[in-house]
Amino acid sequence: MASSNSETGFETLVSKSDVELLKRAWRNEKAAPDILQYESALVDRAKEQIELVEETIDDYTENGIDPLVVSLYQMDLDRTQFLLRSYLRVRLLKIEKFMFHSHKSEEAQHRLSDQEKLFAKRCAGDLEKHFKESVLLKLPDNYQSVLKQSLISEDHDMVPQPHLDTFVVCRSNNFVSLNLYEEGESAETVEMERGDLYFIRYKIVKGEIESGKIDLI
């Protein structure tokens, strides 16, 4: 196979749009205080691309293709693997940090992959077992819950949850008009043009981030 054909093949093997989408998903996940919706289709495509490039590198190496072309594939492979691993690692760190919330909250469960749900369940189960064996079983019955300070508590007040009031830096991808306060507090709004940067409370832009109208940076 000639080098020119190899270079043409390289262009068709790698989806630059998917790499940019993966980079965007990673940045949003890293900057968001809560866990975002798992990008199932994007992750599957990235995995397929990684497998394809790995096979191509092995094939080209065995057939003596120009080492420069092989190095281009390897660079692209390294970049895609880095982004995918970083994206998944950030999500796992959030699950560990908010394991009981991730396991108990129905809304949070909808945002996790099947593997992440299993991970959250195991983390929560192991930590609950450890707490009970080391501390809770030695306390009075009313204080043996890992979710509540006492049995009379109405809410799970011992469960760490994401702070949605956290301020984030974001960029608008489209024109959007946002209410700066929660319903009933104020009618003040802010209008964001495409490309505008804002330092704003996460929960105000949460919906627009999920719809792709705004990105975190």
From TrEMBL:
Residues 162-217 form the DNA replication complex GINS protein SLD5 C-terminal domain. SUPFAM superfamilies: GINS helical bundle-like (SSF158573), PriA/YqbF domain (SSF160059). It is found in: Nucleus. GO terms for biological process: DNA-templated DNA replication; double-strand break repair via break-induced replication. Residues 68-133 form the GINS subunit domain. CDD domains: GINS_A_Sld5, GINS_B_Sld5. InterPro entries: GINS_A, GINS_bundle-like_dom_sf, GINS_Sld5, SLD5_C, Sld5_GINS_A. GO terms for cellular component: GINS complex. Keywords: DNA replication, Nucleus. The GINS complex plays an essential role in the initiation of DNA replication. Belongs to the GINS4/SLD5 family. This is DNA replication complex GINS protein SLD5. It comes from Arabis alpina.
